[in-house]
Each structure stands twice: as C-alpha cells, then as structure tokens.
Amino acid sequence: MEKPIKFSPAKKRSVLLLNLNNEECHWEAQFSAFNWHCIHATSVAQTIKHIHKYDIDVAIALISAPYQHIVFKALTRLREVKSSILWIAISSDNQFTQYPQTHQFPSYFIDYHHQPLDWPKLSHTLGHAHGMAALQLEKAAELNNPQNNHVILGKSATIRRFKTSLEKIARAEGAVLISGETGTGKGLSAHLIHAKSSRKNGPFITINCGALPASLIHSELFGHERGAFTGAEKLYIGHIEKANKGTLFLDEIGDLSLESQVNLLQFIEDHTIERLGGSQTITIDCRIIFASHVNLEAAIDEGRFREDLYHRLNILRIHVPSLREYREDIELLANAYLRIYQQGNNKLILSPAALEIMLRYEWPGNVRELKNRIQRAVVMAEGKQIYPTDLGIKIVNYQSQRDLVQHRLEIDTEVLLDAIKRNNHNISAAARDLNISRTTFYRLIKKCKIKL
C-alpha cells in the first residue's frame, strides 16, 4: 500500500493591519485560516518598525469618518517610508460615501471592504495585492540592474541632483528637451522618463533623426499610404502614430531638416498628422522627448533650426552631466561594468595605476567610452589586474593641456576685446574685422565670458 503524499503547508504571507482607531478587532485567527500572518499596529512609529522588520508589501488600514484625516495623514507619511506598499481600506462604520475625503481613496487604496467582512473575498483581494507587489518588486529589480542598461549609476551629489530632476520631469506631461555631450546617456534618460511616467505601459518609440536620409524622415515620422510614391507598395504607420498613448523619442533633433521641422511643429501644436499621400486627419496622444548634442541656440543663429520649434520643445529641459562632472563615481562605474563584462567571474580587479589614470582622464566619450574601455580591458588583461595599457589610455600631462587651453582662452579674450574696442562696440563690424561670422563671434564671447 502506497504511503499518502504529505504536502508541506505553504508559508504564511504577512499583512499589516493599521488600526489608528484603536478599535477592538481580534482577527488573527481569521487571517491565519486563510494563510495570512496579521501584524497589528496602532501608531505610525510602530508601523514603520513593522515595515522594516517584516518587509511589508501589503497592508490594511481601518478607517472611519472621525479618523479619516488621521489615517490619510499617516498614509502620506508611510508612503515616504515605503512607497511600493499596496493598501486596502476596511471601513469601521460603513460610511464610505459620506466621508468628505472619499475622492482621495483611489490615490491611497487599491480596494476597500465593509464590515462584517467577507473573509474569502478579503483573502482574494490580499492575494491579488500580494501578486501585484511581487510584480512591482520584479520590475524594480529589473530597472535597477546595471546589466539591462536601464539604470543610472552613481552616488555623487551631481548624479543625485540629476536623478531628482529626472523624477520630477517624468511626473509631468510636457515635451522634454535632453541636452548633453555624446555618450552621456541621453537615450537612457529618455527611457527612464518614460518608465517612470504615467505612460509607462504605452509604447516607447525611438527615431534617430541623424541616422536617416532627409528624404525618408517625413515618411518615417508621419507614415505613408499605399502608392504615395514610387516603391510605396503598402500602408506604412509612422513613428508618431506608433507612439500613440506612449512616448516618442526623437534623438539628434538638431539634424532634422527645416522642412520636417515645419511638419513637426504643426503636429506639436494640434496633435494631428496626415500620412504622406493621405487626406485623413489622425489625432495622436503621445509625449515627445527630444535630445540633441548640438547647441540648438547656435543652430538657430545659423539658420539651421527653427526658433518657433525650439520654443515649443524647450518646455522641460534637462542636461545630462558629462563624466568629468562626477569623477568621484568613476570607480563605482568601472567596477559595475567590470562585473558585467566578466560575466560574473569577478577575477579581474582594477590596479591602482589604472584607477589613477581613469580619474585623471578627460573622457571625451563619457560613460559610453568608459564602458567600451572596460570591455577592452577585460579582453586585453593578462594577469589578475587591469593596467592602463589594457584600457588603452596613454599617460599624458593633463595639467599642461589645461594650461595650454587657459593660455589660448586668454589670447582669444584679448583679441576679441581689442576688436570690440576698435569698432566702437559694433559687433558686426568687429566680426568682419576678424574675418569671422557674427554667430562665431558671439560664441567666442560666450566662451570667453565677456560681458558687453
């Protein structure tokens, strides 16, 4: 006779019960019957301790008309402690519709229950919330994994400020302009703005305006109907239309042709498009993020970028700092990428000489260059340590370079001031005197910090 199979009882899941009403509620046995471990808290301080001790993801708040303000104030405070907790409301007086703050319920709770409690229904709600919390945790872990290229690494004050600005912009709805040098992470920043926005469940569509021929930009952005031009054998949905209910990321916007700029301006103003060769007006709901490594203000002066478009897209602006601005994070970044490219072996370490030269290097390619040099070093290294030669960075006298730059700047300043003085502060005449354009003259004035 076969022995009966014994099943181990499932581990009880924890749920916190916040009871600021100080009501009599001995529900531990009922929770236990449905395989829940109930943790009772009667104050905010006690709740915070339980959150940290038991790693709470799902919680219940008892609420009644006299205590609703206290409960909402407590939940606001507890959100600061752990914002990912999913809250369920239980009414003590069954007067939800009469609460003055009923409109706030969707902002604080994922569901609510009346008394007497329907325990199977409450257990189902808790199970659903627990599953949602697990998905949130998985999503957060994925987002914070350096290997997926969707996280900004760094602990410096510069990076902390940048992340704070990024969070604020993500919560807004306006157009975003991301500026920064090549390799700083403008595309990553755009991804994170989308991932942290209310449109995170919608599509994220990217188009590099500098990678497509000018003749194809309009079709790629707005799409085309079948037969719109030679070779258009079928309907093509453009990137703007694909981004409906989501985010459209236009990288290197400064390379967009003037003709395409006009069409894009029209879309930004009325949120409608017409496919090439079509006559139907299509309304699109998407947020646009722009990025450019070129100086758009200078491009306007040179007639390469429309000023009216610039003002339309320059609503929320954020500048991605260069790696030189947060050198204190270089070691952290280097070790993070070293772990990635070693595929978890963790055999190689950075030598003191390698770290020293990395801290002194100017990093013209920014974080992208750092990643590439670490990847190169993992291949080239022969021992257990990485040396400057493995990184491909030559030891040079950077101080001499800086001195040379400063010397050149002083010469330029003197030349510019003399030209301005000779021409009685007439900038156009001073520019002609030096045989340079007026735009270049203004750029040099800004570079040399000359006040007119």
Automatic annotation (TrEMBL):
The keyword Lipid biosynthesis does not apply. Residues 152-379 form the Sigma-54 factor interaction domain. GO terms for biological process: regulation of DNA-templated transcription. InterPro entries: AAA+_ATPase, AAA_lid_NorR, CheY-like_superfamily, Homeodomain-like_sf, HTH_Fis, P-loop_NTPase, Sigma_54_int, Sigma_54_int_dom_ATP-bd_2. The keyword Coiled coil does not apply. SMART domains: AAA. One of its GO terms (molecular function) is ATP binding. Keywords: ATP-binding, DNA-binding, Nucleotide-binding, Transcription, Transcription regulation. It comes from the Bacteria. This is Two component sigma-54 specific, transcriptional regulator, Fis family protein. It comes from Shewanella benthica KT99.
